[in-house]
Structures are given as structure tokens and as C-alpha cells.
Amino acid sequence: MTPHSPGTGQINTLIWIGFFAALIVFVAINLGLFGALRRFGAGRGRTAHAPRASQGIQWRVAGGLTGFAILLFVLGIIFTSNATSTPKTTSAGLTSFKGKPFTGPLVIHATGQQWIWRYDYPNGAFSYYKLVIPAHTEIELDLESTDVIHTWSVPDLAPKTDAVPGKVTHLYFRADAEGEFFGDSSTFSGQSYAPMRTNVEVVSPQRFEEFIVEQQKGIKAGQEGAEKIEGQKNEELAEFEEEEAKERAKESPAEETEPAGEGEGPESSEEGTSEENEEAKEEEAEGGGEEAAEEAAGEEGGEEAAAGGAPSAEAGEEVFAENCSVCHGATGHGGNGGPDLTTMPKAKEQAGAEEQVTNGGGGMPAFAGTLSEEEISNVAAYVVEDIVGGK
Ligand code: HEC
User: What is the residue with the minimal CA distance to atom 24 of ligand 1?
Assistant: First the structure.
């Protein structure tokens, strides 16, 4: 352990005090033993005889040892209470935040989930896997868990602390050196607990402010991208429904007067038969014009993209924007915690990518519970065809 915070510095000193105390006791006992052997033991022309000691020496030894133990006890209390006291931000730390003077602790939420840490910063930005903090600044880490007990542990910076479901645990510390620090998963939390490492990057206060602003922009871009795709879809769907309704009206104006439950008009798509909905979807696929043509051209390359159930890279784009871009970046070329996918072996073929998304691993969460099989195969297709394939 190389301490890089006031708290771990105290603990480190205490460890050394304990070590030297043990060393002193060890040496003293052995010297005493050897001395006794030489004084009382058998030797050339000498027979062993029982040692006789006065009561005085017994009291002196007992008193000395008691004093020593009390001294260690008191030192232990002093150093551990210093170690757990909250370190204040120094003048080299984050003294202003968003243009305003900053004094209190910088509060960051850390959420443990199987099997990755998520960090939420004061400006709404978040990051997975890696926590970025400013140096020389009092940090309050509010630890929570969504599933089982996870332990947040970076020995160089702070005491190990548990994140317990249904409870918030506060951890205060200050990092006094810039650099990257790691800790291993130290509580068994399920099959993939080992790669759930704790990773902290300590940066200058200026760099920290830049980081959270960049991070916030990236997240916003990702979310807007996803909303745009969603919006386009809804628009298209609404158009087709409208057209469909008009056609119906033309074909059989009498039908309109049919007793039709509650809602009428183009919005009541649930009212229509499933046949109609299917028709609308088919039309969507055909009516896509250039888009459909493009897609058909692209699909000629991949044999498996034949009939029903073929993964759709187009549908996968939205899944990617919502679930993956936060780590792998908006374009999949790496970002916060996730590697550039064009460099990854499993991103090159459909089966590998599907497997990675389903089971996770290597610091990536499993999506088996959050995404459907169809979404997984679509997003895998998007990774293989568009990101790695460079479409
Ligand atoms: C919390 C961050 C995070 C999220 C979210 C995430 N990934 Fe990953 N992903 C990673 C990390 C870290 C690795 C590196 C794993 C390794 O080195 O084995 C990775 C690796 C990969 C790989 C390559 C695996 C290999 O070993 O070749 C693929 C493919 C992949 N991710 C796809 C996705 C897709 C698709 C999504 C969205 C459904 C996604 N990832 C979401 C962090 C993430």
C-alpha cells in the first residue's frame, strides 16, 4: 500500500508502529531467553540450576509490559480517529465549482450493481467503471447497491466500505496525488465479481470540471440521438396510420358509422385489426424508398440476412444509443470505460457480439435481463455491420 490520502497515511503510520512494537517485543523476549540460558544453563564444568528471581523483577517486567500495551492502545486510538476524521479541502483542491466558491464536500453517488460501479456527479453527469475526482478535495462518496452487498475498496485512498442494498453509506476521503488507483472486488457478489474492480482517477480540479462537462454533453448527445430515432419512428407510424385511415374511409364510408367502442379517428390504432397493423408495417418496410433499397443492397453481402427474424442493424442503432454509448461512445469508438469496438475480437462477428452483450464480462454488465433476445441480436448486428463494418 502506498498511501495517497491523509486517512490512509495515518493507517500506514499505525501499521509501522505496530510492526516495530512487535519487533521490540520479539527481540526483548529472545534476548531475555538467551541471557537466562547463559546465566542458568548447563555449560562446561557447570550444572544447570533453577533460576531464582526476586518479586521485584517480576513486578518491573509486568509493569513495563503493561505500560507498553497501554501506549500501543492509546496510539491506536489516536491514529484511527485521525484516519476517520473528515479531511478538508485544501487551497490546491476544488475551491470553486461552476463559478461559485466551493467549500463543502463534493458529493458523488456510487451505485454498485452486478457487476459494475456507476458514479453520479453533482451536475447530472455519470460514468461507469471509473470514478474521476479532483485532487486535494474533500470527497463524500454516497454508496448504494441495487442488488447485493458490494465493497468499494481503493487501499491507497480510503478505507474499504460496503454498499448495502436499501441503505446509503457515506465515505469521506481526500486524494492528495494525481494518478490512477485501483482496488479489487473484495466481497463475493456473484459469478462476475472479479472484474468488478474499483478504479479511481485523480485529476486536477480544472480537469475535473472539464471532465464532468464533457461527460454531461456526451450523455445528452446520446439521449437526444435515441429520442430522435424514437421520434422519427413515431412520426412514420403516425403517417401510415393516417393514410391507412383515409384509405379505409374511401373504401367503405359506411363502416365509419359502425358502433366502434370509444375512440374513433386515426389515433385509435388499437381498434384496428391486427391485419391492418401488419399491413401498415409492411408498407413501412416497402415505402421506406431509398432507405429500403440501401438496406437491401447491404444485406446482399450477408447470407444469413434472408427471411424472417434476421437481425436488423437499423433497429440496433437505437438500442446502442440507449444502452451502450455511455461506455463505448456515441459512435462505438470508445469513451468512458468501454473500449473502441473496432479493436475488439468479439465485435467482428454476430455470434461473438451477441454472446458478449448477453453475458457481459471483462467489466461490461450482462444485458440478458434488460434486453430482449431480438434487441440483443439487433444491437449485435449494428455493432458488426455499422460500427466495425464502417457503414
Ligand atoms: C458499463 C459499460 C459498458 C456498457 C454499458 C457496455 N459495454 Fe460493451 N464493453 C465494456 C467493456 C469494459 C468491455 C471490454 C471487455 C473485455 O475487455 O473483455 C466491453 C466489450 C464489448 C465487446 C467486445 C468483447 C470482446 O471481448 O471482444 C462488445 C462487442 C461490446 N462490448 C458490445 C456492447 C454492446 C452492444 C453494448 C450495449 C448493449 C455494450 N457493449 C454496453 C463496457 C460496456
Answer: 346
